[in-house]
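re: ur question from earlier - yeah i can do the single chain one, its not a big deal. heres the input i used so u can compare w yours
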Amino acid sequence: MKTLNQIHLSGLRAVEAVGRLGSVKAAADSLGVTVGAVSQQVQKTEAQLGVQLFERKNRLLLPTPQLLAMQPHLTSAMSSLATAVATTVRGREDALTISVAPVFAGKWLVWHLKEFNRLNPGIRVRVEATVDLVDPNTSDVDLCIRVGHGPYPGMNAEKLLNQRVFPVCSPTLAKEIKRPEDIGKLPIIHDPGQMFTWKTWLDLFGLDETILQDGPSFSDGSLCLDAAIAGQGVFLAWETLAVYAVQSGQVIAPFPERPATGLGYWLISGKDVPRTKAKDAFGSWLKDELQRSIGRPKGADVAPEQRPSS
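and the output i got, formated as tokens:
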């Protein structure tokens, strides 16, 4: 049992899902996370075990003999864990465990959760802010909030909101931006982990990414927003991250347009897990609160062909 202390459960969960389903994509869809997250967890687990579990050929992951020997035990163990947890936590009407990415939790959820608590005083909400892989079919998590393309096979998934992006910067830097191309004169704050690029926004104006300057890079969207607030450059933010900073005047959005990235916010629950009044109440509140809080400005949804020429 001591050897288990050296291996992360989330990594074993990723390995089990890839091995059982046959691909990283299928595992990511099943777990409700990104392909990149699954790949990273598999690599970390291989490093922790000191064993190659998959042979990589032409973007395919083929199970090695070591994994074939492990797979039945991993699948059985995950099923046993799910059963153990289900006997005590599922079906409760007075408690919810929500899994959500730290950035969404810190920049949006914590600022709005008090309203849910006010409306539903009998429901206790526990938030797990983590990037670890979570499968609501086999864990004690009731609901997951995820960003992705969807759908998510093997789960109940409700789309809450389309992800939309727009540039933000400090009030001082905003004075230097009169036209979209002026953004190319200022440092660009980069988040290497973003699932979209500046092309999404620049295409609206017939511009391309060659106009963009270099700038500071941070591995977390929240830090990127803080850098924009501090005047370090222009950041291509998304609504749930930056809406409060815009509304409070910490940053300025020089232009109203907010194109959709093709990604969406999804509320995910286990397919074979009973529905509860607590889950229904949180899901209904979350969808309404997201829409209400965003407060898109006039012109935010203008399509490129509808936009007046500058």
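The mean pLDDT is 89. not sure if urs matches, ping me
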